[in-house]
Amino acid sequence: MCLVPIFLNPNPYSFKKTSILGENLLGKTSIQDQKTSSISKKNKVSLRIENVVASINLGIELSLEKILEKYKDIEKKNNFPGLVAKINIPKATILIFASGKLVCTGVRLPRDIPIVVSKIVGRIEKAGIKIEEEPIVKIENIVVRGDFHQSINLDITSLILDSAIYEPEVFPGLIYKIADPKICFLIFSSGRIIVTGSNNEDIIKKSVKKLAITLKDNGVLGENGMKEEKDLDILDL
């Protein structure tokens, strides 16, 4: 049976790959290209998805014993209530529970989630477990790595951002949480950031833009002058 997963996330595929700035046909950059790239990146943020976490509901209870008997590469960890399965292409780790609920992690692109779901459902069915309903799939979290390509003064940033936590003797980055939309930033003095807590790429992009504008307006990120979101470009790598 070919089952089509039902996505609860309204926009799971909006991130796109783009080429690297300044790269010529030979795959190398000249000195002039590097200078141009550095200038052109001044008001740009590079973003790349590092991990996509999704929940999968098969709608039936599963016999973990049958799955273990069928597959030697699916493991039962000590003191863990579920099974751990791995898929190589696309790379993913799936946690399988007797309730019929699964957790998928380690995927780099949201569009790969349906492929992972199809493969793991196929393996479960080959273990003699019939899945009649279409799996319900929801992207729970997207972890994104970003780079402002400029240094950030974290001491000042900790003062201008409400609820920011910066304890350099404990952790080298600044932790900044937003309640609405629910997002958490890890900000480093190098200009690099990690964004987590959201399952929507558009919300992540808009939140990163707002953060960049706030930092620039307060003089802790590059030069002042960028006043609106349209003045900042997002590079999807």
Could you describe the 3D structure shown?
Helix content is 23%, strand content 29%. It has two domains: 52-141, TATA-Binding Protein (2-Layer Sandwich); 148-236, TATA-Binding Protein (2-Layer Sandwich), CATH 3.30.310. The model is unreliable at 9-39 and 224-231 (pLDDT under 50). Strand 5 and strand 6 form a beta hairpin. With 237 residues, it is of the alpha+beta class. It has helices at 31-40, 64-70, 113-126, 154-160, 201-217; strands spanning 6-7, 44-57, 75-76, 83-87, 92-96, 101-107, 136-147, 174-178, 183-187, 192-198, 233-236.
Question: CATH superfamily assignment of the largest domain?
Answer: TATA-Binding Protein
CATH architecture of the largest domain: 2-Layer Sandwich
CATH C-level of the largest domain: Alpha Beta
**What is the element string, with H for helices and E for strands?**
EHEHEEEEHEHEEEHE
Summed up, the domain count is 2
Average pLDDT reading:
81
Number of strands: 11
Cα separation of the termini: 36 Å
Q: Radius of gyration, Cα only, in angstroms?
A: 22 Å
What is the helix fraction of residues, given as a range? 10-25%
